[in-house]
Amino acid sequence: MVEELERKYDVKILMTEEKVKFPDELKAQLKESGMMDEKGKLKLKGVSPKMLKRMKQEYVECPVLKDDIQFVQCFICPNFQSRVMGEVFCKGEPLK
Fold this sequence. Notes:
By secondary structure, the chain is α+β, with helices and mostly antiparallel strands. The protein has helices at 24-32, 49-55, 71-75, and strands spanning 9-15, 58-62, 67-70, 80-84, 87-90.
């Protein structure tokens, strides 16, 4: 039997057609963790370029930050557990 992940929220992933820019704080965080090179190109392990392009057009209504954020920001959040069938499993713990 598969054990359920302990989570507080199931957050729907939403799509946007417009080109979304990363906030400067997020860029700095991505560069610091090695997920973005100096030219600003994302390099997420295990994520294909096609999937990455799609992720850049997705956003979630974050229940922790109480704001709409890009999916990439959600993906690197410590609360992110899993992405399943158009939803994100979120631990829901407060962020520092």
